[in-house]
Design a protein that fits this description.
651 residues; alpha/beta; MetI-like fold; 51% helix; 8-stranded mixed beta sheet; elongated
């Protein structure tokens, strides 16, 4: 990777853009460093006999009103002009980053006014803000630095907010939240490293704008004051006598253009170089002893065998037409060591139910329930500070896409170790030892070496194993696996499922497995929850799924599973129709439009989830007996395609 990035940087440096940027920035830097030493005395030497002279062999740009060499003064002014511009950019980046990231750290009531202030400030032109702040901070170099710095802050705040919002939705942020990492630590360790590169690129480009702004303020007399001078002040002095010596004004103007062009081209070159992830220097790390003593945190107490209790859970989101409730009245319990599978079509509310149990439904989403408890603690009323250690040590979450589940800027081992060091009084070495031990427990080969690699160096299956290892860093009572095998091939899927089963057997942890594949759930779980349109329509033991399923939707899901001995000349079976949209649930049973057993009662009244003597729950007015044939009409893929084409034509 180092060699590849090195070749890329070399190629960019050899390109016309890169070569020009490097040349100009080196010239500006050397001038800023050496000019005061070489031409400093000449720039300050007063010569009454050479006042206001034009260009000559002795003075290439002429002299000023005191007989001082204009070219020497332009060269010497490079240091002050560049330093002040860089200081202003640093102030703007720091202030903008603080404003942009404050809403993600502060409470909502304190963060919303900051967002509003940034939105208003961005609407004003930067130069207008600079003039406004210059009046507040006063005339002089210090006031000009502060004025330009704070005038640039709103644009960096908006950029930081935009970039942070894109990162905050990634799975590795949710994984850190589940691990109980504080919001400030998430900001420092997970968000800022992932937005640092575009901030640096924009800061480099902004340095050129800062040079122009400084020249403008000094030209107006609000910037650098006598006896100091920068390019803007020299430009103002030259324009006062432009008819006598135009070269005195052209010199500092050319200097501003060249320096501004150098910074802008440097920003373009940096953007090209950082188009891919920057190379990271690798060090050969010593082998870590695997026999380190285990430092385990005390497991969270559980009042009874129930790990997760959900009663009448509802998850809602605002929309232009009002609140939409995609999860409506879900109730179930998960006991110690139990494996429960949740199946259903996309949009049935499976993942939202799991996210609500993990307290990952963010504003403006709203979670409500008659009872939502984890390890005996009410999730909706307990303060976040109190819940964070409980969720971080007793709840593990395995997300659907292992590539987005890890922070790409940090090594796998450090991300695993963070889950333990955040809640336990252990050293970094002990946390890393445990990370390697957990990687070994999920059968990651060469764990001590793999722990010091980045996520992109892992295959999809290895990343999913590492994600499970992260959940095992403490003592999980519940592992929520949200489609953990979707992005994996069949062989790796089986390995991951076997690994989850082994973890459950060894740790007595409960598992909530979310999947589209009802066959996988039937083979790996004790109980199956079938969800449709935001509700549980059937809850039954997995062992009797194929023989005792009573809801027509469950029977239809079983019927459309392809079999190995099926005739390949026949088209695959599918359930006709589509699930209703979350904002358009019908008054009665949501499955009535797709069910051939539906009656007027089904279309008018939604059935309750009723349990029989054996605990088998089903929500259906006309449940099917276990011995009866499947009464659900099954359409073929060809039928579904034709229906979709017809619907498209009608639209």
């Amino acid at each position: 990777m180092m060699a590849g990035t090195g070749r890329k940087l070399t190629a960019i440096a050899r390109s016309p853009l890169g070569a020009t940027a490097v040349t100009l920035i080196v010239v500006v830097a050397l001038t800023a460093i050496l000019a005061p030493i070489i031409w400093g005395p000449q720039a300050e030497q007063v010569d009454p006999t050479a006042i206001t002279q034009g260009p000559s062999a002795a003075h290439l740009l002429g002299t000023d009103t005191l007989g001082r060499d204009v070219l020497a003064r332009v060269l010497v002014a490079t240091r002050l002009s560049v330093v002040l511009a860089v200081l202003a950019v640093i102030i703007g980046v720091v202030a903008g980053t603080l404003l942009g990231t404050a809403p993600s750290v502060l409470p909502r009531w304190a963060g919303r006014p900051i967002v509003g202030f940034v939105n208003i400030a961005v609407a004003f032109p930067g130069l207008l803000l600079a003039l406004f702040f210059a009046v507040i901070f006063g005339v002089g170099a210090t006031g000009a630095v502060l004025a330009i710095g704070f005038a640039m802050a709103p644009q960096f705040a908006r950029l930081t907010q935009t970039l942070s919002a894109g990162i905050a939705g990634r799975d590795f942020i949710s994984a850190a939240q589940v691990a109980g990492v504080s919001r400030f630590r998430i900001l420092i360790r997970h968000i800022l490293p992932n937005i640092g590169e575009p901030l640096i690129v924009n800061a480099t480009v902004a340095a050129g704008s800062a040079l122009l702004a400084f020249a403008g303020l000094s030209f107006l007399g609000l910037g650098v004051q006598v006896p100091e001078y920068d390019w803007g002040r020299l430009l103002g002095e030259g324009l006062n006598r432009i008819y006598l010596n135009p070269a005195a004004a052209i010199g500092p103007a050319i200097a501003v253009v060249i320096a501004g062009l150098a910074f802008n081209l440097l920003g373009e070159t940096a953007a090209a170089a950082l188009g891919g992830r920057s190379a990271r220097k690798r060090f050969r790390l010593p082998a870590i002893a695997l026999a380190a003593p285990r430092v385990d945190a005390a497991p969270a107490p559980i009042v009874d065998d129930v790990v997760l209790r959900v009663d009448d859970l509802r998850v809602s989101f605002p929309s232009p037409s009002g609140w939409v409730t995609p999860v409506r009245g879900v109730s179930f319990t998960v006991s110690r060591g139990e494996a429960i599978g949740v199946v259903g079509e996309s949009g049935s509310g499976k993942s939202l139910t799991a996210l609500a149990a993990a307290r990952l439904i963010e504003h403006p989403g709203h979670t409500d329930a008659a009872r939502l408890e984890f390890c005996g603690a009410p999730l909706l009323t307990t303060p976040e500070r109190t819940l964070r250690p409980l969720l971080g040590t007793s709840l593990a979450m395995v997300f659907q896409d292992p590539m987005t589940s890890f922070n790409p800027t940090r090594r796998i081992g450090s991300q695993l170790a963070e889950a333990a060091s955040e809640h336990q009084d252990i050293t970094r070495k002990q946390a890393m030892d445990r990370a390697i031990e957990r990687l070994q427990s999920v059968r990651v080969p060469a764990a001590s070496r793999r722990a010091h690699q980045y996520p992109h160096e892992f295959s999809g299956g290895m990343r999913q194993r590492a994600m499970i290892a992260m959940g095992l860093m403490n003592h999980p009572r519940l592992i929520i696996a949200d489609e953990p095998t979707t992005a994996l091939d069949v062989t790796v899927q089986r390995q991951v499922l076997q690994l989850l089963a082994g973890v459950r057997r060894d740790t007595d942890a409960a598992i909530l497995l979310i999947s589209h594949d009802i066959a996988v759930v039937a083979q790996t779980c004790d109980r199956v929850l079938v969800m449709y349109a935001g509700r549980i329509v059937e809850d039954l033991p997995a062992a009797t799924l194929h023989t005792a399923a009573r809801h027509p939707y469950t029977r239809a899901l079983l019927e459309v599973v392809p079999e190995l001995d099926a005739d390949r000349r026949e088209p695959l079976k599918v359930i006709p129709g589509r699930p209703p949209a979350p904002g358009a649930f019908p008054a009665g049973c949501a499955f009535a439009a797709r069910c051939p057993l539906a009656t007027d009662l089904c279309r008018e009244t939604d059935p309750e989830l009723v349990a029989d003597a054996e605990g088998h729950r089903v929500a259906c007015w006309h449940p099917v007996s276990g011995e009866a044939p499947v009464p659900v009409a099954i359409a073929t893929v060809a039928d579904e395609t034709a229906a979709e084409e017809e619907e498209t034509v009608l639209r």
